């Protein structure tokens, strides 16, 4: 067995995670990915603490604060004392997952943050969830992330198929697929997953009423056709993120049954 394989298995064995959702700029879909991850953690009864670090667009707080025990905390990632606040929470709450939705433009702080968490010796491994859009900046951001953090963290690279799917996917993400950055990420053990396309009018209905994804399946503000689309999309998307395994603390999780979702069986 190679040293790389052994190291990857040891890293994957860490049973508590700080899952950080990041992207290059607003609009890549990182907040939607964070929201869906929180939906999955709640549905799978995973003890999670959530932090919305994007004060200008606090989607995670807006959609999930009222359904998460203890609520979603809002705090600036780059404010003085952030790491101390997080370390105090991790020590007192001891969540299996600490989920963070970050704003753009905070990459320069990653290195210090990673080192602070390592020095605290709280038993958490950091997973960086890098959400890619169709522009080159997505790759540049991932490149910088790898430069800042190296093998001190694990990587889940999310291709947001809002920008294209099926036959379009290869063309949309060709810059990433052929990049040295992708090679570097894979050498560090990165896991690649897709975030599947959902039509705008369903997103807009969910956003208008500040719903969780699960709530929206049976909510009266969505038409029956929108509810039906969502009840198919959710299990399919869960299947994708489950590929993230222990990097996302979703090992052993299973996609929910569409019919149970339509019956309003939320699991939370």
Jot down its keywords.
15% strand, seven-stranded parallel β-sheet, single chain, 46% helix, 268 residues, Rossmann fold, alpha/beta
SSE layout:
Elements: H1 3-12, E1 17-23, H2 30-43, E2 48-52, H3 59-64, E3 73-74, H4 82-93, E4 97-101, H5 110-120, E5 125-132, H6 136-149, E6 154-160, H7 167-172, H8 174-177, H9 180-187, E7 191-195, H10 200-208, H11 213-216, H12 224-242, H13 258-262
Parallel strand pairs: 1-4, 1-5, 2-3, 2-4, 5-6, 6-7
Helix pairs in contact: 6-9
Using only C-alpha atoms, the radius of gyration works out to 18 Å
Q: How many angstroms does the end-to-end distance come to?
A: 42 Å
Tally the helices: what do you get? 13
Helix content: 40-55%
The residue-averaged pLDDT reads: 87
Count of all domains: 1
CATH superfamily: P-loop containing nucleotide triphosphate hydrolases
The CATH class, by name, is: Alpha Beta
Q: List how many beta strands DSSP finds.
A: 7
Strand content: 5-15%
Q: What can be said about the biggest beta sheet?
A: 7 strands, parallel
What spatial order of strands do you see in the largest sheet? 3-2-4-1-5-6-7
CATH architecture: 3-Layer(aba) Sandwich
Query: By helix and strand content, what is the structural category?
Result: alpha/beta
Shape: globular
Order of helices and strands: HEHEHEHEHEHEHHHEHHHH
- The low-confidence parts are none
> Which fold name corresponds to the CATH topology?
Rossmann fold
């Amino acid at each position: 067995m190679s040293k790389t394989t052994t190291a990857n298995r040891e890293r994957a064995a860490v049973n508590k995670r700080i899952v950080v959702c990041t992207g290059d700029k607003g609009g890549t879909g990182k907040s939607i990915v964070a929201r869906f991850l929180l939906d999955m953690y709640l549905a799978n009864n995973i003890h999670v603490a959530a932090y919305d670090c994007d004060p200008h667009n606090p989607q995670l707080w807006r959609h999930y604060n009222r359904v998460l025990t203890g609520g979603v905390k809002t705090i600036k990632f780059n404010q003085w004392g952030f790491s101390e606040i997080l370390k105090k929470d991790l020590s007192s709450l001891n969540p299996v997952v600490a989920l963070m939705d970050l704003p753009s433009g905070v990459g320069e702080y990653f290195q210090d943050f990673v080192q602070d968490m390592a020095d605290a010796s709280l038993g958490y491994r950091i997973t960086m969830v890098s959400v890619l859009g169709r522009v080159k900046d997505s790759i540049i951001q991932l490149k910088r992330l790898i430069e800042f953090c190296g093998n001190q963290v694990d990587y889940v690279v999310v291709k947001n198929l809002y920008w294209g799917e099926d036959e379009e996917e290869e063309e949309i993400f060709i810059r990433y697929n052929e990049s040295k950055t992708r090679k570097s990420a894979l050498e560090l053990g990165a896991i690649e997953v897709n975030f599947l396309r959902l039509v705008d009018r369903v997103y807009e209905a969910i956003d208008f009423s500040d719903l969780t994804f699960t709530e929206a399946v049976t909510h009266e503000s969505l038409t029956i056709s929108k509810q039906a689309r969502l009840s198919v999309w959710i299990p399919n998307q869960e299947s994708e993120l489950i590929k993230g395994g222990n990097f996302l603390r979703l090992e052993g999780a299973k996609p929910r049954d569409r019919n149970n979702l339509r019956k309003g069986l939320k699991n939370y």
